[in-house]
Design goal:
Keywords: Signal. It comes from Paenimyroides tangerinum. This is DUF4595 domain-containing protein. It is built from 2 helices and 16 strands. It is mostly beta strands. It has a single domain, classed as Porin (Beta Barrel). The longest helix has 8 residues. The radius of gyration is 18 Å and the shape is globular. The N terminus is likely disordered.
Amino acid sequence: MKKILLSALIFSTLAFVSCNDSDDNNTGVDTSGIYLPTKFESEENVQTFVYDSENRLIESKDIEDDGSRTNIVTFVYTNGQLVSAKEVTTEVGNDQTYVSTEDYTFTYQNNEVTVVNVYTSNWSNSTQTSVYTIDSNGKLQSGNGLTVTYDSKGNVTKLVEDDFENTYTYDNQNGMFKNVNTPQWAFYLVLEEFHIFDINNVTKLTYKDSEDAEEDFSNISYQYNSANYPVKMNVIGSENFSNSITIEYLKK
């Protein structure tokens, strides 16, 4: 199962140039239809998203611009529930091709979801089973050394896993994945970095590693469309880190 990453790495799969404007005073209420993010593009990579007729994510594809790495995640739903996911990563280097696969299966009982993750690659194989507590809205609460804290709107404000702690602050605009009906817990467990964009959008992320006494941060600013969804984003972190991306949507 994935671990919390440094803030710079969390946003390195997104790609954003941005700014801010007077939209910060808007309420963030969308009255112009449903927006589903379909493409994040930067100088380093392009990530695309595909949805079914119920606005559920069924595929995420992330391709490095030089073709050295491709990551494809697919989701399967049965009777209205997410039952499995598959992640395949292909990397080309040193005249060899490296392929790793993670097969996830999800089963439910009351407010718990059991996750079985079977990992296979050119060099190793493993199986891990974890149990997580979720609420009635599919929000991740705890499990496997993880605890999550939310604000009154439902944004994640603190996420602690073992020795790692991330804290977040948000804008008041529409989160990029606000209208996506894939449960938030699955975004964290499988896609990892997108679970913090389902209500509003993160404007600051602070990372701490208590074991190694490390701290890091990212400040994020946005440019919004007329419906108050981000279309451009800029991430600036410690040690002169920066990243930029443009975001495209399907409007329904």
